[in-house]
Specification:
The complex is a heterodimer of chains A (347) and B (275). Chain A is built from nine helices and 16 strands. Chain A is an alpha/beta fold and 347 residues long. In chain A, the strands form three sheets. In chain A, strands 5-9-4-1-2-3-10 form a seven-stranded parallel sheet, sandwiched between helices. In chain A, strands 13-12-14-15-16 form a five-stranded parallel sheet. In chain A, strand 14, helix 7 and strand 15 form a beta-alpha-beta unit. The longest helix of chain A is centred in the N-terminal third of the chain and has 21 residues. The N and C termini of chain A lie far apart (55 Å). Chain B has 275 residues and is of the alpha/beta class. Chain B has two domains: 220 residues, HUPs (Rossmann fold, 3-Layer(aba) Sandwich); 30 residues, no CATH class. In chain B, strands 11-10-9-12-8-1-6-7-13 form a nine-stranded mixed sheet, sandwiched between helices. Chain B starts with a strand and ends in an 11-residue tail after the last helix. The chains are: A alpha/beta (347), B alpha/beta (275). The complex binds flavin-adenine dinucleotide (FAD). Flavin-adenine dinucleotide (FAD) sits at the interface of chains A and B.
Amino acid sequence: MNEKRRAIWVFGDYRNYFQNRVTLQLISRARELALPIGAQVSVIVFGHNVDEIVGNYTAHGADRIYLTDHPRLAEYSMETYSFLMERLARQEKPEIILIGATSFGREFAPHVAKRLGTGLTAGCIGLDIDENGLLVQRVPSFGGNLIAETVIPERRPQMATVRPGVFQELEPDPKRVAEIITVPMPEHMPPDRIRLISSELREAKVRRLEQAKIVICGGRGMGSKKKFAKLYELAELLGGEVCATRPSVYLNWAGHETLVGQAGKQIRPNILLSFGISGAIQHTASIKNAHFIIAVNKNPNAPMMKMADVAIVADASQICNALILELQRRIATKQSHPSDLSGNSAV
Amino acid sequence: MLRLVVCIKQVPQVSELPWDPDTGRLQRELAEGMMNPACRFALETAFSIREKVGAKIAAITMGPPSAEEVLREAIALGADKGILLCDEKMAGADTYTTSSTLAKAIQSKIPRFDLILCGSSTSDGETAQVGPQLAEELDIPGVAYVDDIEITGNKARVRRVADQFLETMEMELPGLVTINARSYIPRYVSMTGFQAAFAEDITTYDAAALGLSPEWIGSKGAPTKVLRVYSPRMDKKNIVLTGTTKKIIGSLFSLFDDRIGGIIGKDLKTDKKAK
Ligand SMILES: Cc1cc2nc3c(=O)[nH]c(=O)nc-3n(C[C@H](O)[C@H](O)[C@H](O)COP(=O)(O)OP(=O)(O)OC[C@H]3O[C@@H](n4cnc5c(N)ncnc54)[C@H](O)[C@@H]3O)c2cc1C
C-alpha cells in the first residue's frame, strides 16, 4: 500500500534507555502536529532483532513503521544509517523528520539533512504547525537570551532535532496496531569508511534527570562545594535528583552531566527547588516546564525569584539545612507511627 | 607530511552577553571576539598530531573582517597559514550554507588534505552541525565529539563517548573529526608567537574568488529562515516568603505541606490530632 499521504517521520533512536524516551516523546508530539496537516506518523527503525522496539513504538502511537532488519544494522553506524535514511526519504518524501537531540541524533541529523539538501534546526525546545502548514521550530538563540522561530519554507523534508524532556510521551496502548513496512537492505551498499572497533555502555551513575519528578538545583549562591553537597542530602530525603547551573559545574561543585540549561539538560519536574540561582535565560529556558518552583535567593529581584511560585528571600545554604532538619523531623514522626497511611516507608 | 585543516570560528567573548534590557537587543558591538573554545582544542589536537607524525596545518574561518584575529591567534599558536572567507554575501548563513562555503574553499585551496578538524560545537550557536555537514559535502567520513585521535598510515583511530557508549573507531583518511573542548590542556601563546603571527600571511577570499554564486551562500542560500525572534516571557504568580529561617520554614510547610507532600509521596503533616 503506497498511499501518498503526508507523513511526519520520527527516527527510532533506541540504543539506550534515554534515547528511546526521546523517540517516544517525539512520537507523541508528532501525533499532535499531524492533525492540522492531515499527516500520519511513521517511525523509522534500523536494526537487528528489534521486534520489541517496533511493538513499543506501535503502542506509543506510530501509525506506520518502516523497518529494515539486518545483521549489519546490529550496531549503530553513521554512514550506513545516513545512507538508508536518505534513500528511504527520497523514495517516500516525508514532510517532516524529527530526530531526538541525543549525541547520535545530533550527529546523524546533519548528515541526513545535507544529503537531502534540506534545512535542519538544532536542539529545538518547541514545535508547532503554522497557518501555512509549515513546521515552526523554536530554538534558544543568541546565547539563549532570545528564542528564535525558524521555518524551512521550500526544501523538504523539514528537519529538526529536539531536546530530551521537552515533550511528554503518551501512555502505551498495547492494543494499538501499526502498519509495518519492511524495507529490505539494498543489495549494493557503499563500503563503510568508519569501522567500529569497540563500544561499551558505561553504566555511569546514570541519573534520569530529564525524567525526574523532583529536582533540586544549586547555583553559585550556594557558596561552596561543601554547602552544595548538602543538596544531595536534601535530595535523598525528597527522593529527587540534584542538578546545577553552569557556574556550579565550572566550580566543580557538581558534575557536567548535571548541568541544566541551554548547554545542558532540559527538565520538567513536578517540583523544582532552586537554590542561589539568578535565573539567566540560558538556565530558565530549560526549566520553564517545571510545575511548581520554590526558589531561594538573597536577592528578591533575581529573575529566578520572579518566575518562582514561592520565592524565599534568604540565604540558600541556611534554608537548605533548615529544610533537611524539618523534613527529617516530619518524616521521622511518621516512622514512629507505622500505622500511618501515607506509604512513606522508603526513606 | 600530513596536511591538516582546522576550522575555527570567532564567537563573542563574554559568557554573559551584553544585553540591552530596554530594547531587548543584543549589543553585539560590545561583545569582543574570541576563538570558540572547542575550535581551540581542535587546533591543539592538530598540534599534537604534528608532534607525533609531522604535519602542515592550515586554519580556516568564515566570518567578518574581524575574524582575522582568530587566524592570527591560530598562527601565533603554531598554525602554518590562515585562510579567511569573508564576504557580505556569506552573512546570515545557516549550517547548510556555512558547510558548503567551507567545503568549496577547502576543495579549491587545500584539495589534498588528509584530515579536517573542527570544534564539536560553538559557544554561540551550539548546533554541532557544521562538522558533519562539511564531511558530507566533501564526501569523506566524519566522526563527531572526538576525545582522542591517533593517526597510523592512512587511518585514524578515534575515541569518543556518545550517549554513554565509549566507542573506539577506525576511520579512513581523508576524513573529518569534530573535537570536544577539554580533551587536551591548551598551551599559552608566547610573545614571539604573536609577533610571528603578524609577519605571517593570511589569505582572504570572497565569494567570487571561490566561484560561489550568491544564490547558494549566506542567508540567501540557507534552507532555514528565521521567522521571528522574541524574549521568552515568564509569568507565574509568586508568593514571597521573608524573615527568619524559622519563620520561613514554618510558613512554607503550613502553606504547602500538602502540595509538597503530594509530589514527593510522603505525608508531611505533623499535627496528626488535627485530622
Ligand atoms: C551560550 C551560553 C550557554 C549557557 N548555558 C547555560 C546552561 O546550560 N546552564 C546554565 O545554568 N547556565 C548557562 N549559561 C550561563 C548563564 O548565562 C548564567 O551565567 C548562569 O546560569 C548563572 O548561574 P547561577 O545562577 O548559578 O549564578 P549567578 O548568576 O552568579 O547567580 C547566583 C545567584 O545567587 C544569589 N546568591 C548569592 N549568594 C547567595 C546566598 N548566600 N544565598 C542565596 N542566594 C545567593 C545571587 O543573588 C544570584 O542571584 C550559558 C551562557 C551562555 C552565554
